[in-house]
Amino acid sequence: MKLGFSAYKLVTHPIDWAYGLEDMGFDGWEIVSEGRQRLTRESLPALMDIINSMDIEITVHGPFSDLNPASVIDAIWEETVRQIKQCVELSADFSRVVVVHPGILSPLGSQMPDMAWGRNVEALKELCGHAREYGVTLCLENMPNTERLLGRTPHEVFGMVESIEGLGMAFDVGHANTMRNIDAFLKEKERFTHVHIHDNNGKSDEHLELGKGSVNWDRVLSDLRDFKGMMVIEARSLEEGMRSLEYARKRENI
Looking at residue 87, what DSSP letter applies? Predict the structure, then answer.
């Protein structure tokens, strides 16, 4: 298994902590394009210093704060598409994968869900076409059990993947655990492009260390043993990420 590291909780911190990821045993780093990790022309030189200091695989999680590809407000929809396109462009030299979230039903979108769904698909089609031009695969992530979020079920996620040329799928185990649909997603594991792993107790998106929640990791890691893509440990801290890495390595041959 290829195991990488990512931590949304660290996006407000100076990024020097990432220098040692290779020595810690991680095979990759997923840059979360938010806060101090946000990919901009100004931030790129410092990020490249870290990337060039290690021989590990780099993937990118696209921006999502205050953005909504399902927005029925033109200006918000257009800004969402613009920011994700910029992320794709700036990461194309070092990452072949950019993970994106599906949209959310705003108060207005909740009154016109068909329109919001259409806008979400329209955004993903435009973004996938743009990503192909840069040799990048856009990967749609399944969402946790929050009512207004799109893309919480295999039916929704794979429906979008099937209807949009070139769209990959980022399977988030922790999110699926809150929806009680890990097994349903694993039945389609050959369709996964990318994987996120973290734990919770099945009620909220806690991002616990592996083994600290209710996910059956022996089953999950066994099913994903032959997965060739990157499995990214999404942790709350570097220390918790390292413990999750050790936990996964002990179980990768079960």
Answer: H
Per-residue model confidence as pLDDT tens digits over 148-169: 999 999 999 999 999 999 999 9
Retrieve residue 44's tokens: 């790129």
Please report, for residues 26, 54, 189, 197, 242, the alpha-carbon distance to residue 209 in angstroms, rounded to integers and kept in the order given. Answer: 15, 25, 23, 9, 9
Gap between the Cα atoms of 149 and 179, Å rounded? 12
Is the pTM higher than 0.85? yes
φ, ψ dihedrals at 213, nearest 5°: -125, -150
Q: Which uninterrupted H or E stretch holds 46?
A: helix 44-52
| CB neighbour list of residue 123: distance below 8 Å, 6 or more residues apart | 69, 70, 77, 80, 81, 103
Task: Give pLDDT tens digits for 44-74.
Answer: 999 999 999 999 999 999 999 999 999 999 9
Token pair, residue 156, equals 């929704």
